[in-house]
Amino acid sequence: MSTPSFAVVGRVNAGKTATLATLLEVDDNDLLRVSSTPGETTRVQELPVVYQGETLVRFLDTPGFQQPVEAMRAILSFAGNETPGPDHVRRFVAECGERFPDEVRLLEPILNGAGVLYVVDPSNPLRDAFVAEMEILRWTGQPRLALLNPQGEVPPDQEAAWRERLGATFNLVRSFDAHSARYEERRRLLESLLQIDERHGTAIRRLLEKMDHEWTERREQAAEAIVDFLEESLLLRVHEPLDERDEGLPSRLERKKAEMSDRYFRKLAAIEQDCVSTLLKLYRHHLLKADNDPSLHEGLDLSTDETWRKWGLNRTQLSAAGALAGGAAGAVFDLGVGIHSLGAGTVIGAIGGGIAAFFKGGSLPELKVKLGGIKLAGGDGKNLVVGPPGSPNFPWVLLDSMLLRYQGILHRAHGRRDIDFVKPLAAESLVRTLPSDQRGTLQKWFSSCLKGTPDRAKEPEVYQVLADLLSSNSV
Ligand SMILES: Nc1nc2c(ncn2[C@@H]2O[C@H](COP(=O)(O)OP(=O)(O)OP(=O)(O)O)[C@@H](O)[C@H]2O)c(=O)[nH]1
Ligand SMILES: [Mg+2]
Q: Which residue owns the Cα nearest ligand 1 atom 6?
């Protein structure tokens, strides 16, 4: 049995190319040119869906109908008194290439056996020209699926008129928004192909199976990337030797502290961007940007109370998670994360009380003095260390901010061509919905990371919590 193929057809600018780009996750403008210029697609372009070297299905992007009413008349004239059918369309294709180049190009693959995916924008009123397109497609005799791809507001009665008319001519009518469809909608569209043409059942079912498998794999890799990101962020410290002049000159020390704090946050931002880039790559986004969006950083400005209120866990949840984590981890939690984080030989607060004032609200990183072991006798070897922010909510805010971006990536359709940044969909905490036992699992592991000794034995469990979270409906 030959590979099933489906031609995506419709009026110029209906969103045919965008539909395919979203369906097949192609955001490459060289491969699929989505553009507001009508008549952008001028040739039939084949898009094979290949898994492990095997082409399971083939889609064809086509030029849009330009003169449907005239083309319909030409076909009717070939039919004479007969009911128009595939033979008359075939004759039209053979003889009318010069006058109707676009119509001929788009009809050719259908006459060669491709199923029809007819894309319409129902925000346009249903006019005669569309009816002509539908008639021509009906005359090809091929299985037909109509897709409503609204590009603007659609008055309810107008949508009803479209659905009724399409329902009379097409085997199935479905909605598919090329600018917002997510995995589930893409999957549903492919499943619909089963309903219009049973002959391709085996190939389409295999495609769905492979897609699901691959989607799960991606999610697992995303969970891994997020675990790595959390670990790296929680272990991050900025060290700087403290010399005698620092201690003697308060302004010099202040400057040094400011620089270190700045460096800490820039490093943290770089770790975050790395993770977002990994997620973008996993989900095949090239146009979407991980960085440089100022609004994103507003979202993770740890110096604002708003961040701590909005994201992470609320106070009650935090206490509960801390209590669940129990034991030594609980002690770290109570004392403020990071206090024991440098292990033996660490002295806290040796520089004096001014530090607390420097870090607004106590939520910014703690600055510590680390005594460098045996060198202490010689008076040197003291280190300033900027570690993770003291707020127990810090790991949760990090996780929340990454989950929200993950959600933003999943919601971004590949058919969109506006260059954009990954944005959280809504500023709603996702970690707050976690069941308390899972929060406890994460809190224990967070505490171990903050102490500088990630608990490797807990990693599989942490990974599982994240994998479950990424597959939950809230994400
Ligand atoms: N808002 C919105 N715009 C869309 C949608 N689908 C497509 N567009 C826009 O409509 C314009 C045309 O999209 P294309 O996918 O290039 O349309 P086409 O049918 O392939 O056009 P031709 O190749 O010129 O026949 C582009 O500016 C798209 O961004 C959609 O679902 N929503
Ligand atoms: Mg196109």
A: 15
Intra-chain end-to-end CA distance of the chain, in Å: 40
Asked if 431 and 395 touch (Cβ cutoff 8 Å), the reply is: no
Average pLDDT, consecutive stretches of 10 residues, N- to C-terminus, the chain (475 residues): 91 96 92 85 92 91 96 97 97 97 97 97 96 98 97 95 96 96 96 90 93 96 97 91 77 81 81 92 91 49 60 73 52 30 26 27 50 41 76 83 89 90 75 90 93 94 96 83
135 within 8 A of 169, measured Cβ to Cβ:
yes
Identify the residues whose C-beta falls under 6 Å from ligand 1. Answer: 10, 12-18, 34-36, 38-41, 63-64, 149, 151, 177-179, 417
- Least distant ligand from the CA of 31: 2
- How do the domains of the chain map onto residue ranges? 5-196, 216-471
Question: What length does the chain have?
Answer: 475
Asked if 168 contacts 141 with a C-beta cutoff of 8 angstroms, the reply is: no
Query: pTM of the prediction?
Result: 0.86
CA-to-CA dists, residue 180 to 19, 47, 252, 438, angstroms:
10, 21, 53, 31
* Cα gap 196→217, rounded to integer Å: 30
- What the block records as the tokens of 74 is 């030409």
Torsion of CA 126, 127, 130, 132, to 10 degrees: 140
Question: Which two structure tokens, joined as six digits, stand for 231?
Answer: 């670990």
Nearest ligand atom owner, CA of 64: 1
What class is the 5-196 domain?
Answer: alpha beta
